[in-house]
Specification:
single chain; alpha+beta; two-stranded antiparallel sheet; 5 strands
Length: 213
C-alpha cells in the first residue's frame, strides 16, 4: 500500500466526525452547518500529523451579476425614491493537490457557489468548495444526520409566514398619490410603471395619473 493511501486511512480513523455548530441564516429559513474553521482545524491537525497537505492548483470561476430597482422603504421622502440593488452569484469548480511528504500526490476536486451583494461571493464559493472537498475526500460525517436521502430540505415545512403576505404589494397611500399628482407630467410619466410594480394603485387614481398633462 502506498504512503499516501496509508496517511489518508490514518486521518479517516482519527477524525470520527465534525458537529454542525454553525447556524446559517435567520428565522425559519435558518439551518445548521459545519464551520469552515472547525474543518480546517480538526482535519488540518490530523493531516499534518500524518504528513499530508493540500494545495489549490486550479479554479474555474463563473460570475453572474443581477441588478434591479426597488422602493427605498427607509427613506423619509415622499414619494419614496427608488434605490439600486444587486446580487453577485459566483460558482467555482476547483482542483487541489493532496500531497504526502513522501512525494506521492492525488488531485481532488471541489465545487462551490456563493451569493453576496458586494465582493464576497468568490470567497464564499471557494471556501465552500475546499471545505466539502476535504470532508468528502476523508469521508468525514457531519452532524447527527448527514444523508440527504434521510433528511432532505424539500421534505421540510416551509416558513410559517404565508407566501401571499410575503408577495403582497402595499397599497399606494393618499399622501403618496397627492405627491405624485403635484409632480410635473414629464417627470411623472416614467415613474408610473415603477410605482405599478411596487404598489397597488386604485384604478381611478391610476387613470388620473396617466391622464395628467
Amino acid at each position: 500500500m502506498s504512503d499516501l493511501a496509508k496517511a489518508i486511512l490514518c486521518v479517516m480513523k482519527e477524525v470520527k466526525g465534525i458537529d454542525k455548530t454553525l447556524t446559517v441564516g435567520t428565522g425559519n429559513s435558518s439551518y445548521k452547518g459545519v464551520p469552515d474553521q472547525e474543518v480546517k482545524k480538526i482535519l488540518g491537525e490530523s493531516m499534518a500529523k500524518n504528513g499530508l497537505c493540500v494545495l489549490p492548483i486550479e479554479i474555474d470561476e463563473q460570475t453572474q451579476i443581477d441588478r434591479w430597482e426597488e422602493v427605498d422603504t427607509y427613506s423619509k421622502e415622499i414619494p419614496k425614491p427608488m434605490k439600486q440593488k444587486q446580487s453577485v452569484f459566483t460558482k467555482v469548480k476547483t482542483k487541489y493537490l493532496l500531497l504526502h511528504e513522501s512525494g506521492e500526490s492525488q488531485v481532488i476536486v471541489g465545487y462551490g457557489h456563493g451569493v453576496d451583494s458586494q465582493d464576497k461571493g468568490a470567497g464564499k464559493a471557494t471556501t465552500y468548495a475546499l471545505k466539502y472537498a476535504m470532508l468528502y475526500s476523508f469521508f468525514v460525517p457531519t452532524g447527527k444526520i448527514d444523508d440527504t436521502d434521510t433528511d432532505h430540505s424539500d421534505s421540510k415545512e416551509i416558513a410559517s409566514r404565508p407566501l401571499e403576505k410575503v408577495a403582497q404589494k402595499p397599497l399606494l397611500t393618499d399622501v403618496q398619490f397627492d405627491s405624485l399628482m403635484k409632480m410635473d407630467a414629464l417627470a411623472l410619466m416614467p415613474l408610473i410603471p415603477k410605482y405599478e410594480e411596487k404598489f397597488i394603485i386604485k384604478p381611478d387614481w391610476l387613470t388620473k395619473l396617466k391622464a395628467k398633462k
